[in-house]
Design brief:
This protein has 402 residues and is mainly alpha-helical. It is built from 22 helices and no strands. α10 runs antiparallel to α11, α16 runs parallel beside α18 and α19 runs antiparallel to α20.
C-alpha cells in the first residue's frame, strides 16, 4: 500500500475550515437563549417506548434548560430511532449548551451529511477535530468533500484517517476514490491492493478495483473483482456511532444492534440477535435479507440460500428474495441459475433498475453481451447508474459488436 504522507492536524483543520468558513448555519455556542426541546407530538411516529424516553428527557430539559447531558442524550434517542429531523435540531441545541463536546459536533455533522448538507457538515467535523483526534471525523469529512468535488481537501482528510486508524479500510478506500477521480489509476490500485490483501472479498474495494483494472486494460483481474462486488464490505469503525445506537428501542434496538455487529464482523453474534426476530416476524423480508447477508459475509452460501428461501415462502410475490438468490448463485459461479432468478426478479418488479444492472453483469460474464447491453440500457433508463455501469456497458457493446 502506498505510504500516506503525514497530514498534520493543523493542516487538516485548515483544509476543513476553508470551506466551512462559508457556512452560515453555525449554531450560537454561548449557551444562552437555547430553545426548549421539540414538542412531544413531533415524535408521534416513534415507538411507544421511545416516546416515553423522549418525554422523560423533555421533562428534565424543561426543568433545567442548560442540562447539556440531557440535551445530548435526547438527540441520541432521536438519532438512534431514525427521527433524523428531530435529531438535527436536538444536536444543535446540544452544541449550544456544550460547545466543547466533540461528540455533539461530530454527530451534528454526521446528521447533516446524511441530510445532504455537506458544506455545513464539513464545518461540524472541523470543530469536532479541534476538540478530539477522532478518525471517523476525518473520513466523514473526506466523504463530504468528495460529494463537493473538493479532491485536495478530501485527500488530506482521508490521509489523516489512514494515519489514525491504519488497520481500518476507511482511509485507504477514501484515498483510492480520490486517486480514481483524479485519473491516477496506478495509485488507486496500490491502495486497493493493500485492502484486498487483508479482506479479499470486500465489496467496496472490489468495486473500485474493477474500475481501476478496466482502466488499465487488466480485464481478467477486473472480472475477478466484479465477482465480489455484492459481498459485504469491512466495517468503517465508528465507536461514537455505536454508542449512540445503544439508545435504539424495541425491535429497532435489536435490528440496530445486529447491524452494528454485522458491521463489526461479528457475524455469529449478529445471527444470535436476528434469528429470534425472524421467528417473531417471519413476514419481514428485511430480516431474512439481513440473515442472508450475515451468511454471505462468511461465504456460507448454503445458509444464505436457506434464509432467502424462507423469505420466498412468506413472500413469493416479492422481488427482493429472487434478486438476493440470483446474487448468491452468481457468487457461487452458478451463472445460468443466477440468470433465471434475476429474470424472475425482473418479472416481479420490472421498474427496479439495480436488478436489471445486476442481470446485465451476470449475462456479460456468461458471454451473452447483446442481452447484457439491453439490461444495462434499461437500468440507465430507470435512473440506476452506479460508477461502473458506463465501463461495463462499453465492454458489452464492444463484445456485442455495437
Amino acid at each position: 500500500m502506498p505510504s500516506a504522507a503525514p497530514a498534520a492536524p493543523a493542516v487538516l483543520l485548515t483544509a476543513l475550515l476553508v470551506l466551512g468558513a462559508a457556512c452560515e448555519t453555525e449554531p450560537e455556542t454561548t449557551g444562552a437563549g437555547v430553545g426548549g426541546p421539540p414538542a412531544l407530538e413531533d415524535a408521534s411516529r416513534a415507538h411507544p417506548a421511545v416516546r416515553a424516553r423522549i418525554e422523560a428527557l423533555r421533562a428534565t430539559i424543561l426543568e433545567a434548560p442548560e442540562d447539556a447531558r440531557a440535551r445530548f442524550e435526547l438527540a441520541q434517542v432521536f438519532d438512534a430511532n431514525d427521527l433524523y429531523d428531530l435529531a438535527w435540531r436536538a444536536y444543535q441545541d446540544a452544541v449550544q449548551c456544550a460547545p466543547d463536546d466533540a461528540r455533539a459536533w461530530y454527530h451534528l455533522g454526521r446528521i447533516e451529511a446524511e441530510l445532504g448538507m455537506q458544506e455545513s457538515a464539513v464545518r461540524r467535523f472541523a470543530r469536532a477535530s479541534e476538540l478530539a483526534d477522532y478518525a471517523p471525523a476525518y473520513w466523514r469529512a473526506g466523504l463530504a468533500f468528495l460529494e463537493l468535488d473538493r479532491l485536495d481537501e478530501a485527500e488530506v482528510c482521508f490521509r489523516r484517517a489512514f494515519e489514525g486508524a491504519p488497520h481500518d479500510v476507511s482511509g485507504a478506500l477514501g484515498l483510492a476514490r480520490v486517486a480514481l477521480q483524479r485519473g491516477d489509476v496506478d495509485a488507486a490500485v496500490e491502495f486497493l491492493a493493500g485492502i484486498l490483501a487483508r479482506v479479499p472479498n470486500d465489496g467496496q474495494a472490489n468495486r473500485l478495483a474493477a474500475r481501476a483494472y478496466r482502466a488499465l486494460g487488466r480485464e481478467t483481474e477486473a472480472v475477478q473483482a466484479l465477482s465480489f462486488v455484492e459481498s459485504p464490505s469491512a466495517a468503517w469503525r465508528d465507536p461514537w456511532l455505536l454508542e449512540t445506537m445503544r439508545h435504539a428501542t424495541g425491535d429497532r434496538e435489536a435490528i440496530a444492534r445486529a447491524q452494528a455487529l454485522l458491521a463489526a464482523g461479528q457475524t455469529q453474534r449478529a445471527l444470535d440477535v436476528l434469528l429470534p426476530l425472524v421467528e417473531a416476524h417471519p413476514e419481514e423480508v428485511t430480516l431474512h435479507n439481513m440473515v442472508a447477508s450475515a451468511h454471505i459475509a462468511t461465504r456460507d452460501f448454503r445458509a444464505a440460500l436457506e434464509a432467502i428461501d424462507r423469505a420466498l415462502e412468506h413472500h413469493p410475490e416479492h422481488f427482493q428474495p429472487s434478486l438476493n438468490r440470483g446474487v448468491v448463485l452468481h457468487l457461487q459461479g452458478r451463472l445460468s441459475e443466477s440468470v433465471i432468478e434475476l429474470e424472475r426478479a425482473v418479472e416481479l418488479h420490472p421498474a427496479h433498475g439495480p436488478t436489471h444492472f445486476y442481470l446485465g453483469r451476470v449475462l456479460l460474464q456468461r458471454g451473452d453481451a447483446a442481452a447484457a447491453v439491453r439490461e444495462f440500457e434499461i437500468a440507465i433508463s430507470l435512473g440506476h447508474d452506479p460508477g461502473e455501469l458506463d465501463e461495463l456497458l462499453t465492454v458489452a457493446r464492444a463484445e456485442a459488436g455495437r
